[in-house]
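target protein:
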Amino acid sequence: MLEYFSIKKENSDKIVLFRIGDFYEAMGEDAIIVSKALDLNNTKRRINDNEHIDMCGIPANKLYSFTDTLVKNGYDVAIADIVDNKHQVVSNI
């Protein structure tokens, strides 16, 4: 989670999609935007005993069709993937 927040801080003007397994996850306010723009379910993830964060996942095999829709709706997107065992932005759309 710390990697996500670090990447989001560097890309605060973009929706950050963060690779977790077979999905690219949007978190926090980005998750709310993504779920509404793409008509996807929004979930919550526990970050500590008292706090949860909104999450919305996009299947990795459908990433670009979903990002095309986000861009057409006026959003800029940063895609964070795992490179050399850590997450980093690999594409800005």
Observations:
- The CA atoms of residues 65 and 72 lie 11 Å apart.
